[in-house]
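Quick check before the chapter quiz. The format below is the same one you will see on the exam, so make sure you can read both the input and the output lines.
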Amino acid sequence: MKLNNISFSLVLSALLLCSSCSKEVETNTAENNKSSRARPSSQQVKYQQKEKIAFIHFGMNTFTDHEWGTGKADPSHLNPTDLDAEQWAKTLSENGFKTLILTAKHHDGFCLWTSKYTDYTVASSPYKDGEGDIVKEVSEACEKYGIDFGVYLSPWDRHEESYGTPEYNIFYLNQLKELLTNYGNIAEVWFDGAKGEDAQDMEYNFDRWWTTVRNLQPDALIFSDEGPDIRWIGNENGIAGQTNWSTVNRDSLTVGKPGQKDYLNSGEKGAPDWVVGECDVSIRPGWFYSADEDDKVKTVDDLVDIYLKSVGRNCTLLLNIPPDRTGKLHPTDVERLYAFTDTLESMFDDNLVSAATIKASSSNSSGAAEQILDGNWDSFWKPADSDKEPTLTLQFDKPIAFDILSLQEYIPKGQRISKFDISIKKDGNWKTIADETTVGYKRILSFDEVTTDQIQIRFKETLATPIINNIELYHTNSRPK
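Here is the expected output.
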């Protein structure tokens, strides 16, 4: 076939245009992938699915009534009369806590196990005539009741004479190895940079310590201000930012560095490192037990509010419950935990979404809208990539009343949503009842009761095509106002 000059020019132009379109598509796809490139490890996903984990602060401070011990208290002070690690683990397990993290050594340097590298340990105390190993008792109790075990080993040590010298890093490493090799599987290792103004200058060798954790406990997650797996949320109130990205730039963070709390609280949109937020808070004003605080245990409404602002803001809740001087969880704390659990169960026991018909503005071939409602974690709705402001609409046969809506992104594919809103049909018009930012693993919105037969969720800004795997809807009068 012979083409004249005009036909040839048209064909050439079309080919160039197609080539240009192809390059544009490739560029957009690359940008799409780049914007969502930070993704969690399988361990990080399982960690967020735990939702609630527990801290157990117990040690010399329990018996001296200090929060930060001096490191000079006589070991004879530590003498629990009825230590019951099984009571700890059983209570936590029955209340839905999936991990117990024990303060194996706090800032005072006193060790709850017999360490080869110091005599400032439980072996020097009256507990079980110096034959006790509280770390072992707790790890075995966790195994019995089916919850994971984690350890906190304070870098700041007010007792150890080598602190402030390079030799201390080796001392600490040796103690870390003891904990990582003698107590079964470790789910989480907790590092922090806390130290008093009177502390000697000390440059910690975190990189070497973290490498040791990776080598000896490859499935363990590491917590610190900068991760590498889990980050501090920037406060000890258990509250994450209303905007909370699981992504940060670890190069901008340093363990113990002042001035980074706001960044830790909100994360960074599109940052390169996936480091999950963990919201730590104590059920009492202090972290160690004090009889003076028996009437200051947080109320159920306090705890529910914290849950909504931690788990409900793309984090995991780390709740501290400190045993008393007998070595048991105090009856008030135990009663409060069970009441908290009962309240959460009553709040989230009747998902109204099951009665809805769901419609989407578009759907990708890999994810139809109906898959949001099937209860399967690994099935999801994904709109068409060309849908720049995708929406989901829930329709009901008759009006329903609700005051809580929970939304989840399928985080194995990354965190993508940066702005969304929720509207209800009212008198024939759409009325916005929430205008929010991030979602992540879970976003729980609590608002004044509304009644409608149609709810619309609109995803206004995203880093990449959003992927939603769950929506829940509840009507409750038990939530804090």
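If your answer matched, good. Residues 42-347 form a domain with the TIM Barrel fold (CATH 3.20.20.80).
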